[in-house]
Amino acid sequence: MNQLKSLDPPHKGLRNALGKLAFITGKTNFCNQESVEKLKTIAGEVFHILKDHTHTENKFILAPLEKRIPGSTDHYLSDHDKIDEMETSLLERYNSLNGEQSNEDGHLLYLDFCQFQSMYLEHIN
């Protein structure tokens, strides 16, 4: 009998979105406003999806589980708090881009995003 894995489909989509944002961040010319605007649009969409997923998971997966087994969701909720802080910080950095940053500044954003991506992938594994 196959076991229902309700989080597999959304987590596959999140992995895909994170990978695409990492790729696009890594290839963006941060000195070009048009290139930066495309990146900002994609980053906004990805971070919106991430926040929506966390909200949905907290409300429809973790809240009912916590009612049945008190304390069982503490680790997940703690992770979600850390993830939310990192998402907020990164999104602010993406939103502050204006095409006047150096490509070195962009590379630092790319590395920080990759660090976030690694942590996020570990969380959903």
Could you outline the blueprint of secondary structure elements for this entry?
Blueprint: H1 8-27, H2 33-68, H3 74-95, H4 103-124
Task: Write up this protein.
- The chain is an all-alpha fold and 125 residues long.
- It has helices at 8-27, 33-68, 74-95, 103-124.
- Helix 1 (8-27) packs antiparallel against helix 2 (33-68) and helix 2 packs antiparallel against helix 3.
- It starts with 7 loop residues before the first helix and ends with a helix.
Strand proportion, as a percent range, falls in: under 5%
Order of helices and strands: HHHH
Question: Count of helices?
Answer: 4
Instruction: Work out the count of structural domains.
Output: 1
How far the N terminus sits from the C terminus, by CA atoms, comes to 22 Å
Low-confidence spans: none
What form results from the Cα inertia axes? elongated
Mean pLDDT: 94
Largest sheet, in brief, is: none
Structural class: mainly alpha
Counting DSSP E segments of at least 2 residues, the number of strands comes to 0
Helical content class: over 70%
Q: Cα-atom Rg, whole angstroms?
A: 16 Å
How is this structure best summarized?
Helices cover 80% and strands 0% of the residues. The chain is mostly helical and 125 residues long.
